[in-house]
Amino acid sequence: MERFYTRPEGHTAAPATLLPLVVHDLCYEIGGKRLLDGISFRTDVGPRTVVLGPNGAGKSLLLRLCHGLLQPSAGTLTWAAAAPDTARRGQAMVFQRPVLLRRSTAANITYVLRLQGIPRRQRRAMLTEALEQAGLLPLAARPARVLSAGEQQRLALARAWALKPQVLFLDEPTASLDPAATRAVEALLDHIHHSGTKIIMTTHDLGQARRLSDEVLFLHHGRLVESAPATVFFSNPQSKEAAMFLEGKLLW
Amino acid sequence: MDDFRAAFFTALGLLLGLDRDLVAIVRLSLMVSLSAVGLATVLGLPLGAAVAVWRFPGQALVRILLNALMGLPPVVVGLMVYILLSRSGPLGTLGLLFTPTAMVIAQCLLVTPIIAAFTRQTVADLHEEYAEQLCSLGVGPWCTLWTLLWDGRFSLLTGILAGFGRASAEVGAVIMVGGNIHRVTRVVTTTIALETSKGNLPMALALGMILMLLVLAVNAAAMVIQDTANRVYG
Fold first, then answer.
1. Where residue A111 sits, what CATH number does that domain have?
2. What ipTM did this prediction achieve?
């Protein structure tokens, strides 16, 4: 069973905690162009971290680097649990456009459970729980790719969360959703947050950032311009760029 | 013209009367082609998927080779298999030349590149979409192959049917390695060629109609599968 990770309140042996994540002087270059430059921050268990910034600031890139989908050109990224294997298993990521397997809704979730070697009898219960949380139980047998955009994103979330990761990355999870679907996704995120999973997400939507963030990393042109608790950031931004962004004057 | 009309009606008579020779020929044809396609599927799916997904030296070369081999002339395949299996050839001791097994081998060589090239394209497209997600989930290389093959199953079926169409319609390879021996290695296409040159049009026509029906059915099946998959799985 050590192949799969359980949260602190889980009943299996205590796992290594991933957090805090310490990022130091992180750079990412491609074709001689520096897209992320000297990013340093530290984030710990608890607060929801929102990476905020205009389009092209490097938000998605930063998320992918943290999740290990890309390798940094320079700098370090350190999880508290040293083994990279453990680190990957305690994380999950949801993409802006959900990538769903061409299978049923239920099979999409069963796929990750099986991947982690969870025994068949436990799978059933975990599947039902995941579908229920996401409000997808009535749609379990439907092919995933004919669900509505909102349902698809909820399924992607349910799938990511089915294994109860310590850290959940979300890249603009509601960017292509209508307000009602956005609300449903945000409610699900709230639930995930309260169950103890650390949320690190990007958004360019100020309203969403206000609703969901506990701490803000503000990116602009590939640099981390400001990092502050949400209350401070929104009431009293320290940088000129952040102030302009909050006023809707910083477009890119 | 009356000759042709008479031949046509005799052909219909053979078909409707389930002529014993005709049935035996069609059965052997199906057995040879289905075995060849089955074997080619087992070889071609993993090969195509591996070329699509894995990074290894010489990958581009394999890819070019696969695409080029799709157009392999049946007579060349026939010649190659003939040389391999002939008494003095490297596999001559097996005594396979002029047996249905030899025909299966030849058709399998013809069809494997088709299925592999088709699989490569399908799986590569799918992989482009899935790569980040699978990487995020920590899916290993073998499991990635299997996932992509399974999720591409409907498209792949179309490729397999295309392979079957090719196998059941070709004549060059099977006539060379099978020898067109009565009641042993005589299949639909080789019989059509032989009976036509003998002037026995009714048999040739009857078999020609069956072949046409088969090809139509295969294409219709491919279309239905693709449409259903698009509608149901998006």
1. 3.40.50.300
2. 0.88
